[in-house]
Amino acid sequence: MIPLEKFDYIVVGSGLAGLSFALSIADHGKVCVITKAEITDSNTQWAQGGIAAAVGESDDWHLHETDTLVAGAGLNDQEAVRFLVQNAPSAVEWLISLGANFDHNGEELSLGKEGGHSRHRIVKHADKTGWEVERTVVEAVHNHPNISVFERSFVTSLLLQGGRCIGVAAHVDGLGFRCFGAQAVMLATGGCGRVYQHTTNPRVATGDGIGLAHEAGAEILEMEFMQFHPTTLYHPQMRSFLITEAVRGHGGTLRNHLGRRFMYDYDERLELAPRDIVARAIESEMRKQSTWCVYLDITHLPSQEIQSEFPTIYEKLKSIDLEIDRDWIPVVPAQHYSCGGVKTDIHGQTSIPGLFAAGEVARTGVHGANRLASNSLLEAMVFAKSASEKLTAEDNKVELPEAIDLPAWKCIPEADSVRIRRSLQNIMMKEAAIVRTNDGLLKAQKEIEKLFKEYERLPRAPFSTHPLETWNLLIAAKYVVNGAIKRTENIGLHYNSDLL
Ligand SMILES: Cc1cc2nc3c(=O)[nH]c(=O)nc-3n(C[C@H](O)[C@H](O)[C@H](O)COP(=O)(O)OP(=O)(O)OC[C@H]3O[C@@H](n4cnc5c(N)ncnc54)[C@H](O)[C@@H]3O)c2cc1C
After folding, report:
1. Ligand 1 centroid distance, CA of 497 (Å)
2. 213 domain residue, yes or no
3. Pocket around ligand 1: residues whose beta carbon is below 6 Å from it?
4. Is the distance from CB of 376 to CB of 245 less than 8 angstroms?
5. Which pLDDT tens digit goes with each residue over 210-252?
6. Same domain, yes or no, for 98 and 66?
7. Strands 147-150 and 31-34
8. Residues 52-83: pLDDT tens digits?
9. Which residues contact 71 (CB under 8 A, 6 or more apart)?
């Protein structure tokens, strides 16, 4: 038994979802934020495009709602979508009140436009909105006396008592295993992009929340709806660097090796068609032309405009000798966003009492079969705040034990973990990515089972995070593949060429 360190609320993850929850509830109790790397290591930090909100003069939430439902192919939960779009302007105002510095045109917010949006409604900070947003919430968290942050602390299990989640077990760097108890746990662990060989997600995106929730018995849904970003850099020195959709919003065109603007062959919305259509078009064009990439051409814009609108992209690509005001950018699709996840209601409540989820790990129902661009930072804030409002409105006092048994965990040697993870990423990229087939999915299912067995057979090794992440990736991959096998029609992001 080890002692239970008591807080009022526990947050797992320090991206926008976790820190929005922490900030929203910290005036009502002691909050413990546990995060496995540095506080800023997150998908949030890398978001380029922005935050969707109907704040423009010619916009209103009904239009944002319609665009979200169209992108989601009608599989969205309508109540969740309405909740999201109606709360979008206040979520943006909340960030501004904390000090977020968004682009302005005089007094007005300068709004971008992205694929699938019928209006200019993307609130942004040049092409590094995520960096600005994360900077803002991290600063606010550091200034709040009720919030304690444990960095380099890896959550290994959720603690359950009588079917209720009462805390987490974590390996805290330098201190070893500790158990934390609270009346509610917010799971905000982000995505699982590292299931795939090519992803825009940083190294922390290993589906840990899916693994933790699965082991605890929570309901997990719709993991087959995996979004691939159509345009990530194809370059050996800078893998998977994202070229934001806003580049296409500014008139960037896609060209094949022959220089032809091939989107004319695929969709009348051309480069601004939804991401799944653009990604499939690129994959099909690469196959037709037998090439490893296509090109994104933004050379029609004046150099100064490119440098002020896309400073990060301009500088990064310049460092590898690509001058994007003169050169076309070689691009390929890569995994980008997981629409499915741990099922929640509009207050972030999962199927397990005491356990809440928000952000990319959650399946709130807002995305349906496909996510509308720039709806995810918004989703992270809106549902995290909603969870905090529900929790503070209710009397949730739970009797916590003084000590608890540390749940079992198994690490394998890191070299084996690296090998298993690589095999998983290869099979997932090959058989469960943009275009799937019946045979390919069955092959992936078999390979995943084989990898699980191999992990279980290997000798136990001392604690390290890599193997536990690999285990979580295997669980996440299993949900993706099983979900894809069960889905019998092509819809949104799920595309099986045998179903045509
Ligand atoms: C390159 C890129 C560009 C994007 N652009 C946009 C955009 O323009 N607009 C938009 O709306 N969305 C965008 N997205 C998506 C968006 O950034 C994410 O969906 C969102 O930031 C997710 O926030 P989150 O808080 O749920 O997760 P994250 O920000 O990923 O945070 C997860 C946190 O959980 C921690 N964690 C994970 N596992 C554990 C564990 N076992 N123990 C402890 N801590 C753990 C991680 O370290 C991290 O701190 C983009 C994503 C990427 C990768």
Report:
1. 31
2. no
3. 12-18, 34-37, 41-44, 46-51, 129-130, 154-155, 188-191, 200-201, 204-205, 208, 242, 337, 359-361, 374-377, 380
4. no
5. 999 999 999 999 999 999 999 999 988 787 788 988 899 899 9
6. yes
7. parallel
8. 999 999 999 999 999 999 999 999 999 999 99
9. 116, 274, 367, 368, 370, 371, 372, 492
Distance 41 CA to ligand 1 centre (A): 8
Active site residue: 82, 119, 121, 275, which one?
Answer: 275
For residue 275, indicate whether it is catalytic.
yes
Residue 240 burial (C-beta neighbours within 10 Å; 0-12, 13-18, 19+) = buried
Which residue's CA is the closest to the ligand 1 atom numbered 2? 47
Q: CA 85, CA 76: separation in Å to the nearest integer?
A: 13
Final residue of a domain: which of 333, 350, 377?
333
Domain with 397 in it: what CATH number?
3.50.50.60
Residue 24 shares a structural domain with residue 88: yes
Full residue range of the structural domain in which residue 484 is found: 414-499
Which tokens in the block code for residue 339?
């629409």
Within 10 angstroms of residue 414's Cβ, the number of other Cβ atoms is 15
Q: Which of 285, 315, 333 is the last residue of a domain?
A: 333
Q: Are 484 and 340 in contact (CB under 8 A)?
A: no
In a domain, 466, yes or no: yes
Q: Which ligand 1 atom sits nearest the alpha carbon of residue 377? A: 11
Question: Ligand 1 centre and the CA of 191: distance in Å?
Answer: 6
Distance (angstroms) between ligand 1 centre and the Cα of 500 equals 34
Residue 346 — φ and ψ, nearest 5°?
Answer: -75, -5
Choice from 189, 336, 463 to test ligand 1 binding pocket (greatest atom count within 8 A of CB) = 189
- Tell me, yes or no, whether 36 and 99 share the same domain: yes
Using a pLDDT cut of 90, give the percent of the chain over it. Answer: 91
Indicate if 326 and 441 belong to the same structural domain: no
Among residues 228, 293, 268, 257, the alpha carbon closest in space to that of 492 is found at 228
